[in-house]
Amino acid sequence: PSQGGSEEKIDLMIALNCEKQEKQDLDPDEFVEYTEVSFEEFEYLLENKYNTYQFLKEYYHREMILIENENDFDKFLKFIEKHHIFVIKPLNFEVGWYVRKISVADYKNPRELFDEILTSIDTIAEDKSRNNLLTVHGKVSMILEELIEQASEMKALHPPSVNTLRKIGRASCR
Predict the structure, then answer these.
(1) Residue 44's closest CA among 94, 97, 99, 92?
(2) Largest alpha-carbon pair distance within the chain?
(3) Which residue of 49, 64, 72, 159 shows the fewest CB atoms closer than 10 Å?
(4) Would you state the pLDDT for residue 83?
(5) What are the C-alpha distances in Å from 89 to residues 9, 120, 151, 164, 168?
(6) Do residues 34 and 23 touch, judged by C-beta distance below 8 A?
(7) Could you tell me if 22 and 166 are in contact, meaning their C-beta atoms sit under 8 angstroms apart?
(8) Residue 144 forms beta bridges with which residues?
């Protein structure tokens, strides 16, 4: 898919959402036919945290890296040079499972922290209670994400967490 400007990306996401609704056997007369991007591409772009980040990077205003295996050590070192405290989370899990805040200062050296990340990948892969997510999404990988600095008004809602407000709406698929 095209990696164009913000209006184009928003239009693409609306069209993909319409296609997803169509796939769920809703009334097809209510939806525009959109053939440039398949439902599979939609899943690839928006149902994977890192792919979403890559696609919408200009809107994130923070850095994120993907850690899969030992080959990612150099990328990890560059990341922690800039971000001494960060959030780590599994690539394809939901509802906050295994999400935590990490401080590099809590470890003797970067190698110790990196090894712990690789060990956590193995631990998560063995977690039978979340096995259905692994079946759907494949192997486990970890995302390291720069901390979000939220506006003071949002922080006032609950200072220890990142707060969000969601407006439920629906774009027309006609």
Answers:
(1) 92
(2) 61
(3) 159
(4) 97
(5) 26, 10, 23, 18, 26
(6) no
(7) no
(8) 65, 88
Higher pLDDT, 15 or 174: 15
Token pair 């759907």: residue: 136
Strands 85-90 and 100-103: antiparallel
Q: Is the separation of the CB atoms in 142 and 81 below 8 Å? A: no
Residue 158 is predicted with a pLDDT of 84
CA 88 to the chain's CA centroid = 11
Under a CB-based contact definition with an 8 Å cutoff, are residues 117 and 142 in contact?
yes
| Mean pLDDT calculated for residue range 95-116 | 90
Side chain identity, residue 57? K
Backbone angles phi, psi at 20, to 5 degrees: -60, -45
b (16+ CB within 10 A) / e for 61-79: eeebbbbeeeebbeebeeb
Q: Which has more confidence, 42 or 106? A: 106
Using alpha carbons, select from 41, 162, 140 the residue that is nearest to residue 91. 140
109 three-class SS:
coil
